[in-house]
Amino acid sequence: MSQTEEDKLLNEVTGKSYEFGFTTDIESDTIAPGLNEDVIREISAKKNEPEWMLEWRLAAFKIWSEMEEPEWAHLEYPKPDLQAISYYSAPKKKTELKSLDEVDPELRKTMEKLGISLEEQKRLSGVAVDFVMDSVSVATSFKDKLAELGVIFCSLSEAIQEHPELVKKYIGTVVPQRDNYYAALNSAVFTDGSFCYIPKGVRCPMELSTYFRINEAGTGQFERTLLIADEGSYVSYLEGCTAPQRDENQLHAAVVEIVSLDDAEVKYSTVQNWYPGDEKGKGGVYNFVTKRGICYKRSKISWTQVETGSAVTWKYPSCILKGDDSIGEFFSVAVTNNMQQADTGTKMIHLGKRSRSTIISKGISAGNSQNSYRGLVKIHPGATNARNFSVCDSLLMSSTCGAHTFPYIEASNPTAKIEHEATTSKIGEDQIFYCQQRGIDEEEAIGLIVKGYAKEVLNKLPMEFAVEAQKLLTISLEGSVG
Amino acid sequence: MLKIKNLHAQVGDTQILQGLNLEVGPGEVHAIMGPNGSGKSTLASVLSGRESYEVTDGSVDFDGVDLLEMDASDRAREGLFLAFQYPVEIPGVSNMNFMKAAINGKRAHQGLDPIKGTDFLQKVKDCASLVELDGRLRDRSVNEGFSGGEKKRNEIFQMAMLEPKLAVLDETDSGLDIDALRVVSQGVNAMRNSDRSFIVITHYQRLLDHIVPDYVHVLSEGKIVKSGGKELALELEEKGYDWI
Amino acid sequence: MTGSKESFISNFKAPENSRGLRSQGDQYLVDLPVPGRRSERWKYSPISKLLNTSLNTCSGEGVVWPEEILPDPVPFLDSYRLVFRNGHYVSSLSDMPIDDDVICMPLSEVGAEFTNDYHKREWVGAMNAAYHQDGLFLKVSKNVSLDRPVVIHHLTDGADIAALPRHYIELEEGAGAEVVVWSSASEKSSGMCNGILEANVSSNAYLRVDKICNEAGEIFKFSHEYIKQERDSRVKINTFTIKGHWVRNELEIVANGPGTDSTFNGAYLPTGTEHVDNHTVMDHAYPNGTSSELYRGIMYDKSTGVFNGKVFVRKDAQQTNAFQQNSNIVADKGATINAKPELEIYADDVKCSHGCTVGQFDKEALFYLKSRGIGSDEAKALLVKAYVGDVISSVDREEVRNEILRLYSERHGWA
Fold it and tell me: Distance between CA atoms of A267 and A301, rounded to whole angstroms?
């Protein structure tokens, strides 16, 4: 490929503007910017929360006030001004919604633009969607069907009102308030998120799905998800994210906690395409997320993520493999383009005997972006016969991007078996030429090759999501993804 | 069909083709032989449009269009097929998706709708049987983990799928055992007809026992130095390239 | 008050020479933080225990060389030798080359222009800059290859010692040299040995370094090697930790021109409560460089191993070929390995890979050996020897290889 053509192609690839950049014009009820104890009391009061929840938030705030923003990640960005952010923004009409028809028409339009018309999804794919817009869940579906099985799937605010015993028992047990700077912040100010409980032995018959969107300008999104899979249950949970196009940087500091009790299995899939900023790096979302699950005996948590968005990503979906014979998996595709920066990976903490983990990470860097894998595999002294297998590959698509690998391996047991491999390579000119010789044009060839490169991970996504994920890869890299 | 006139080409600063002339008519099979380094594979690369090869002089007319003006994928869509000497592996891309993308690329070029799923599958079945390519290989990633022989069979399978006007076989016999050679040749022979032409590039005569050429050319130092009928190949085999 | 960074160095005395470097060191000792768990580079190797001790630097006077330690650590090697005790040169035990094309003498007698900035980055480096004592100065002229290897033998001897050697090597264009950097410590010694080696390898020159740590006693050992390579130069560094209470080996190779070749290997087999840390940095800043790294370790008993290997491929370092492999075996309950192989890549047309494993001895192989009548311990020893042997075999001089093998064998009961 000649230099100029490659440049041209990359220009096209990188020149694709953000397709989901629109704002929904509905009235919002927003708290004035700033963060102090009063703001937290106000959030809690607006949400009508019980005293214990407020106490928990305040405790988190106290911890957070004494912490410093971390700097160890391979990222460079201006620190967000946390006092300039509004910590609560809810659509003003707070009437109870009994059916989808009651949803604000503007909001419905937004959903349709996103391609997730709730009704259609309801009818066609059997996906129950909990739609979170600027931190408050506004529409849910399939509740009744799930209720028959005892599955609770609702907003976290609702769960705090309706199922306080479950929330109280599990919140903060996987990601404690003091876990890290942004988790502490989230614990203090989280506005809403999803709550999910699968009872003993129940196999959730449908994929549970949530869409997160940041809408109001200058609002941070601090959602919090709590997912509990009781003994012997199974659930597949999907999370998709988009944010409208804005010039200023928006902060997204979410927390996801998963409890996978004995013999349970949780699949958690994310497709993230928050606004990445423009090609000069202006605007875009700061995505600082703490996601962690704990696995009890013989249970399994499988994280799958396709990350194409955000200006800065800082995210390590992790598994604490506490139970014997528990399994943790992490499958990731992270695409960075233009000025995007991603520092993402996983932590697999092996405590249980014969616990096993698999990590497959595929990074794709283009433009002037920086893409880092950071992972930890820790084998504690008691984790006899623990196993880990990791593969971290990087594909470079321009001479001005960077691909980095930082795996931490800590083993304190003589029976531990860990294998880590990483490779970095350029997209193959021979491969592109071979495709071209068969009549596939260069752009399409690149798409085909990238999709093939990421296939191992894309295959882990549920069908409905795989299609969207492939679309996103196409948008992000402009290759034709059939 | 194909008219190559005074073709000069170089890689980096090395001049490899130095005034090559060749005409291939419809339905004809031309064999190009020559010692290592004579420019055989360069010819294949130049015809198919590999970027690292620079044409410094001459012209190539392909059925009325200027071949050298087009990029590689358009040449393919116009009906030029190259069976690679070393087919590359493309991990994660299934043979089937690959072929579908290729066929639809060509169809779009011709202003046709994408191929129907059932037609495509039927075609795959027909073409695979031609080269005894089993189903397992069809579903695997392009050339990934294929043996040398399997890769070459896959090349001929793709050729059958794409039905080119002109196929260039670049050392298709290299690294093949006698059974694979037979299968590959049968595939090629089955595709011979009065419209389709072939350029068979080879170092050895044995492939030409199976794919019998109409003409044989000897390439040396970037030029065709001798042309003749199929007997020329036998003569070469007997006397060696030094004879030229 | 002990434990503070000021108190730790309060008894140190600096020689009178190299004022410029020393004053920089003094400044950075104030400015830089003490390595701690919060620092990414030191999180697995905290030094708080050392800071709580009170150490003294020694003068070079009144040297008594302990009987149990041979001044010549590689007895059968035909070599030049510079011997140091507690940072000071021992001329009576040394044997230096006399050659017009080679300058080889104690650093204190010549002085050198050090170019590395380690003392500006690390507190430990600042300490050496401020208080360094003596070391090797070696300069080999253009197109001259030193006829014999130079062995630098540093001994730390005595209680609560602070030894701070500093070595300088310069190879002119097309020159060549082999250096063995050997450190030992006597049974009853304690304290710290903080050494720095800088080597400037000009274009088309070659340097081989075999670095062996075989220290008894309870020494905290820091050693930092900084190697700068110019165009088409070749460097090969082997780092063996045979014995050491607490060892931190840092190796930094900067490829400062195109076409460089860097090979660096290491082995560590800590036992008891020993701590061995290997930090390597390979910095490719120019095109067509090749680097190959192999480190293998076995952690016995309650020991800790640390491996951190960083490979940088900068924007202009196209066609770099970088390979890194780190393999570890945690042999006993209570032992730990912390490994972190890192790739930082900013050029696209490169071939880089790293692999890192933690595992056990191949059970099949063990069984096979046993089925041939070889006892369990012996079979294990055979496998260990083979495992570490891959690293030992990269030592070019047979005499050095044999001595390393002999010491490992003695320590680990290999047949």
Answer: 6
- For chain A, which residues make up each domain, given as ranges? 3-477
Cβ of B84 within 8 Å of Cβ of A482? The answer is: no
Say how far apart CA A475 and CA A321 lie, in whole Å. 36
Q: Which residues pair with A356 in a beta bridge?
A: A327, A387
Chain B touched by A4 (CB under 8 Å): no
> A23 at the C interface (CB within 8 A)?
no
Whether A422 contacts chain C with CB within 8 A: yes
Kindly state the tokens that stand for A275: 């606004």
Residue with tokens 């034709």: A480
C294 residue type, one letter: L
Identify the chains in contact with B, defined as 3+ C-beta pairs within 8 A. A
Closest of C60, C381, C413, C410 to residue C214, by C-alpha: C410
Q: Which positions ≥6 away from B210 have C-beta within 8 Å?
A: B181, B182, B185, B186, B189
Q: Kindly state the tokens that stand for B165.
A: 């006007």
Residue of chain A with shortest Cα separation from C307: A409
Highest mean pLDDT among A118-127, C5-14, C171-180: C171-180
Q: How far is CA B128 from CA A451, B142, B187, B230, in A?
A: 25, 14, 10, 30
Per the CB < 8 A criterion, the answer to whether A359 and A348 are in contact is: yes
Helix %, strand %, coil % of chain B (to 5): 40, 30, 30
ipTM of the complex: 0.87
What pTM was computed for the model?
A: 0.79
Residue A409: other Cβ atoms inside 10 A? 26
CA angle C70, C76, C82 (to 5 degrees): 55
Sole residue written with tokens 């950075």: C28
When the candidates are 3.30.420.40, 3.40.50.300, 3.40.50.920, 3.40.50.620, the CATH number that belongs to B2-243 is 3.40.50.300
pLDDT in tens, B78-128: 999 999 988 888 887 888 888 888 999 899 999 999 999 899 989 999 998
The residues, any chain, with a CB within 8 Å of residue C188's CB and separated by 6 or more, are: C158, C159, C217
Place of tokens 């004879």: B243
Beta-carbon-side half-sphere exposure of residue A138 (alpha carbons within 13 Å): 27
Are residues B102 and A440, on separate chains, in Cβ contact within 8 Å?
yes
Inter-axis angle of helices A181-189 and A51-65, nearest 10:
150
Q: Give the whole-angstrom CA distance, residue C303 versus residue C289.
A: 36
The tokens describing A473, both together, are 């890869």
Q: Give the tens place of pLDDT for each residue, A131-163.
A: 554 444 434 556 667 788 898 888 888 888 889
Cα–Cα distance measured from residue B189 to residue B180, given in angstroms and rounded to the nearest whole number: 14
Q: B52-76, pLDDT tens digit by residue?
A: 889 999 999 999 999 999 988 899 9
- What is each CA distance from C257 to A422, C260, C263, C264, C351, in whole angstroms? 26, 7, 16, 18, 18
Interface check for C311 against chain A (CB to CB < 8 A): the answer is no
Pairwise CA distance, residues A310 & B192, whole Å? 55
Two structure tokens written together for C253: 């190779």
The rounded distance, in Å, linking the Cα atoms of C128 and C134 is: 11
